[in-house]
Write a structure and sequence with these properties.
This protein is 7% helix and 42% strand. The chain has 487 residues and is mainly beta. The protein binds fe (ii) ion (FE2). Fe (ii) ion binds next to β25.
């Protein structure tokens, strides 16, 4: 289905998910069909961009938009919704019509001198639009810069930059920290770029803001890694051959991601950090892969199993520029019709004795923004993954369905409704459940025809609809969120 813009140009209908949403609301008791399960009590907190137009200019990329927090509160079978922009410095400037900080793929218009000054003393973006986590007692909005922003989960008010109580050198990181449910550590990595670039993996003990280095690994060509894998004994960085020359980056004057280059001849390297002593092991495959998201990982019989939503190359990063996603712009000479590249759920088996890497595709149905029953199965053998997907038999302009994949059998179940576009499905287990998939998945879905969004509640066993609660406006396409159970 398509829609038509003011100039009469035909555009795909999912463009509604990339429209700025300037309206901040707090709506009680959303119109609901079906019956919300009695046991489902808590808040779905989500993060994502919601403003891409700044001072008459459009930001370049989906990932550049100004962060908005969303809260769906579910209590006694009723759902309320609220949204607030994160009051970052980036947002404050944007609201005044000015791009003052370097985003993922958009840079401020600076003089060469200011650019040089900024590059040697980086001013990181605080537009934390990717994910939400908890550090000590703070709810925190995260992106891939070291600046994280605390917010009030009830009012969604911005509280300020999280101050860590350590001396770790700030650097590029991920918005996908792992939480070890056994040790209660929050784990992530940080990249220090320079003549000698270094990955440092670190843990944050429960209740603490002190990041403790676990191990370090040098790299001549840092890889763009949006997430990583955690097992019982290892932290694994899957270094894709989408790499940057840090010294060139300092001088290039180009936006962050445009400094990365696809170099398939490098293959893919797995850097394993032993969590006990920080020692590192590297395994390699000549096959070049790219991914944003690890699904799950675990150890089995001396092997590491890593399930990853992979692409054959890094072209997807270019495909998520708004010029590609939203069709032609008047002065664009490099326009291509939007079509997502193929992606798939792939299992990598790392044999630590034989020092080999083997891989195979787990399922025909593709999977992105993957989630699992994290609380009981992260870093353990598991069976079910949930995500957003496409029809594997048709070229896809955008992700338009939800999928559940049985990673043992390769079978899948799909939820699909024409002209709707679901976001990341968050699994919530039923209290007392013993089956891995006994619970619900929650997804915020854009109804393109209605110009509004709804919270969809599906039975995680078969993706049948249990309920939906409609928001009186559109929720722009976001990234990640967490369900916080009521005490
Ligand atoms: Fe992500």
């Amino acid at each position: 289905m398509s829609t038509t813009d003011a100039d009469g140009t035909s555009l795909p209908d999912y463009v509604a998910g990339f429209a700025d949403q300037p309206t901040e609301v707090a709506v009680e008791d959303l119109a609901t069909t079906g019956a919300i399960p009695e046991w489902l009590e808590g808040d779905l907190l989500r993060n994502g961009p919601a403003m891409w137009r700044v001072g008459g200019r459009r930001l370049n990329h989906w990932f550049d938009g100004m962060a908005m927090l969303h809260r769906f509160s579910i209590h006694a079978g009723k759902v309320s919704y609220a949204n607030r922009f994160l009051r970052s410095k980036d947002y404050q400037a944007a609201k005044n019509g000015s791009i003052e900080f370097a985003e993922f793929a958009t840079d401020p218009c600076r003089s060469l001198f200011k650019r040089m000054t900024a590059n040697f003393s980086p001013v990181y973006s605080s537009n934390a639009n990717v994910n939400i986590t908890k550090v000590a007692d703070d709810f925190v909005a995260m992106t891939e810069t070291p600046i994280q922003i605390a917010f009030n989960p009830e009012t969604l008010d911005t509280l300020g930059v999280v101050e860590y109580e350590d001396s770790l050198t700030p650097g590029i990181t991920t918005a996908h920290p792992h939480y070890d449910v056994t040790t209660h550590e929050l784990i992530n990595y940080m990249l220090k770029m320079g003549r000698n670039s270094t990955y440092t993996v670190f843990g944050i003990p429960r209740g603490s803001k002190h990041r403790q280095a676990i191990g370090t690994a040098d790299t001549p060509r840092p890889s763009y890694m949006h997430s990583f894998a955690l097992t019982e004994n290892y932290i694994v960085l899957m270094e894709f051959p989408f790499v940057v020359n840090p010294l060139s980056m300092l001088l290039s004057g180009r936006p962050f991601i445009e400094n990365y280059r696809w170099k398939p001849e490098l293959g893919t390297t797995f850097t394993l950090f032993d969590r006990a002593d920080g020692s590192t092991t590297r395994l390699h495959t000549d096959e070049p892969w790219f991914a944003f998201h690890h699904v799950n990982a675990y150890e089995e019989s001396g092997q590491l199993i890593l399930d990853v939503s992979v692409y054959a190359d890094a072209e997807i990063v270019s495909d998520l520029f708004l010029n590609s996603l939203l069709g032609p712009v008047p002065d664009s000479s490099d326009y291509r019709p939007p079509q997502l590249p193929p992606f798939s759920l792939r299992r990598f088996t790392l044999d630590l004795q034989a020092n080999t890497v083997q891989s195979h595709q787990l399922c025909e149905q593709p999977l992105e923004l993957p989630r699992i029953n994290y609380g009981s199965h992260n870093a353990r053998a598991y069976r079910f993954a949930y995500g957003i997907s496409v029809d594997p038999t048709e070229p896809a302009a955008f992700l338009d369905r939800l999928a559940k994949i049985d990673v043992e059998s390769g079978e899948s179940i799909v939820w699909y409704e024409p002209n709707t576009y679901p976001g990341e499905p968050v699994f919530v287990s039923r209290p007392g459940a013993s089956d891995e998939d006994d619970g619900v998945v929650l997804s915020v879905v854009l109804d393109a025809a209605a110009g509004s969004s709804f919270l969809l509640v599906l039975d995680a066993r078969d993706l049948s609809e249990i309920a939906r609660a409609t928001v009186p406006q559109a929720v722009p396409f976001g990234f990640h969120g967490q369900f916080i159970r009521s005490d």
